[in-house]
Amino acid sequence: MNQIQELHKQAMDLAEAAFTAKLRGDLKQANQVSRQAFDKESQAAALIANELDAEPTRSVLHRSAATLAIECGELQAAERLIAIALSGNPPQEIAQELKDLFIKINLRPYLERHGLTFDEEKLRNLIVDKQGI
C-alpha cells in the first residue's frame, strides 16, 4: 500500500474512532482523535496535491481533509484545501460538494458582514421540510 493510501486509511480509522468517542460522550477524546485524523488526511492530500491527473482521488482526499478541518474548527485550513481541490479537475459531483463545504463555512460570516442575521433553526426546518422528512 502506498503512503497516500496508508495515511488515508489511518485517517479514516481515526475519524471512525472520533465518531465513536463522540457517541460515548467523550468529547475531549473525540476532539483529539479528530485532530489526528485531520492531520493524517491533510498529509495524504498534500502528497497528491500537484498531481492534477489523479482524479477523483486528489479531490476526494482534499474534500475529506476539508471536512475534518471543519470538524476541528480549522476553517482557514478547510478553505485552503477546498481551493486546492477546485484548482484541479474534480468530477462535477465532488466539485459541487466542495463548493457546498465552502458555503457552509462562509455563509454565516458573509451574512453577518452585511448586517443580516442567520437563524440556524429556521434553516434546518427549511431543509427538513424541503426533503420531506
Notes on the protein architecture:
- With about 130 residues, this protein is an all-alpha fold.
- Helix content is about 80%, strand content about 0%.
- It has helices at about 5-25, 25-50, 55-70, 75-85, 90-115, 120-130.
- The longest helix has 22 residues, at about 5-25.
What is the overall number of helices?
A: 6
Largest sheet: none
Which regions are unreliable across 5 or more consecutive residues at pLDDT < 50? none
Residue-averaged pLDDT: 91
Distance between the termini: 42 Å
Radius of gyration: 16 Å
Q: How many E-type strands? A: 0
Fold blueprint:
Blueprint: H1 3-24, H2 27-48, H3 57-71, H4 75-86, H5 92-113, H6 120-131
Helix pairs in contact: 1-2, 2-3, 3-4, 3-5, 4-5
Can you tag this structure with a few keywords?
6 helices
Gist of the model:
This protein has 133 residues and is mostly helical.
